[in-house]
Amino acid sequence: MLKWIAATLLLITAVSCVEQSNLTQDITDIKSQIWRIQKDQAEQTRAIEQLGNTAESGENANKTQADIQATLEEINGNINILFERVRDLNDKMTVLLGKIANLGGPGKLPETGGPASQPAATGPTKASGSPEIVFSSAYTNYLQGHYDVAAIGFKEFATNYPDSDKVDNALYWLGLCYYEQEKYRDAISQFEKVINDYPDSDVLPAAMLRKGLSLLASNSIGVGVVELQDLNKKFPLSKEARIARNKLDELRGNTQ
Fold first, then answer.
1. Does domain 1-105 have CATH number 3.30.70?
2. What single-letter DSSP state applies at residue 42?
3. How far is the C-alpha of 7 from the C-alpha of 9, rounded, in Å?
4. Contact 206, 172 (CB under 8 A)
5. What are the residue ranges of CATH 1.25.40.10 in the chain?
6. Location of each CATH 1.10.287 domain in the chain
7. CA-to-CA distance for 182 and 247, rounded, in angstroms?
8. Distance CA 173, CA 190 (A)
9. Which residues have a Cβ under 8 Å from the Cβ of 97 and sit 6 or more positions away?
10. Which of residues 66 and 227 earns the better pLDDT score?
C-alpha cells in the first residue's frame, strides 16, 4: 500500500513538473514575442523621425505635407496596435506566472531580456471557455493574420454573449476580419451594425471610417465619400476624421 502511494506521489510530481515546464516555455515564447514587438515599435519610431526630414519646398509643399500626415496617421495606428499586443501578452504572462506559482516545486523562470533562440511558431488559437477567453483568442488570431479563424471567434462572441459590453467591439473586429480579406460587403454589414445599434460605442468613429473605406474599395465611391464626410462632421477632432479628410483630399486630387 505504501509503495502504491509513493508511486502515485511520484507520478503527480512528474506531471506537475511537465506542466510547469510547458508553462515556463509559454512564458519564454511570450517574452520573445514582446521583444520582437519592441523592435517593430523602434522601427516605427525611426520611420516617424525620417518623415520629419522629407518636407519639400515650393509648389509641392502642401501635397508633401498631406502625404506625410497620412503616413504619420498610419504609423501611429500601427504603434497603437503594437501597444495593444504588448498589453495582451503581458496579461497572458501574468496568468501563466500565477499557474506556475500554484504548481510550486522547483523550476527556474526564464530570464528577462532578449528573445528565445528558437521562438515557437504560432498557429490559430481555438476559441473556447469564458467570454474573455473567446474574445482574446479571436483577437490574437486577428493579430496573427488568421482572419478566418478570428472571424469565427468574434461571431461566436457576438452570438453567445449579446449582453456583453464588448459586443460592439466584437462586431467591429469581425468587420475588420472581412476587410482584411477584401470581403467588403460583409465588412460593411458589420460596421453598419456598430453604427446603427451602438451609437455611443467607443469604436463608432473607427467603424464609420472603415465603412467608408470599404465602400470606396468596392467602387461605391459616392456613398463612401458621404460616409467619410459624415464622420468628419460628427467627430472632427478624432484621428479617424483626420484620416478621412486625407482620403477625401486624395480623391479630390485624383479627379482634378
1. no
2. H
3. 5
4. yes
5. 122-256
6. 1-105
7. 18
8. 9
9. 27, 109
10. 227
Instruction: Specify the pTM.
Output: 0.54
User: Of 166, 32, 16, nearest to 99 (Cα)?
Assistant: 16
Reported as a single tens digit per residue, the pLDDT across 16-28 is 454 555 655 666 6
- Residue 205, judged by CB atoms within 10 A of its CB (0-12, 13-18, 19+), counts as buried
What cell does 238 get?
Answer: 478624432
Do 29 and 120 touch, CB atoms closer than 8 A? Answer: yes
Closest Cα to residue 148, out of 126, 163, 117? 126
Residues whose CB falls within 8 Å of the CB of residue 100, separated by 6 or more in sequence, listed in order: 20, 23, 24, 27, 107, 109
Report domain 122-256's class: mainly alpha
Residue 9 above 80 pLDDT?
no
- Of the candidates 214, 212, 229, 238, the one whose C-alpha atom is nearest the C-alpha of residue 73 is 238
The residue-averaged pLDDT of 228-256 equals 90
3-state secondary structure 113-157: CCCCCCCCCCCCCCCCCCHHHHHHHHHHHHHCCCHHHHHHHHHHH
* DSSP summary character for residue 58: G
- Mean pLDDT over residues 190-212, rounded? 97
CA separation for the pair 218, 208 (Å, rounded): 15
Helix (H) or strand (E) holding 238: none
Check pLDDT > 80 for residue 252.
Answer: yes
Question: Which tens digit of pLDDT belongs to each residue from 37-88?
Answer: 656 655 665 665 565 555 444 444 554 566 666 666 666 566 566 656 666 6
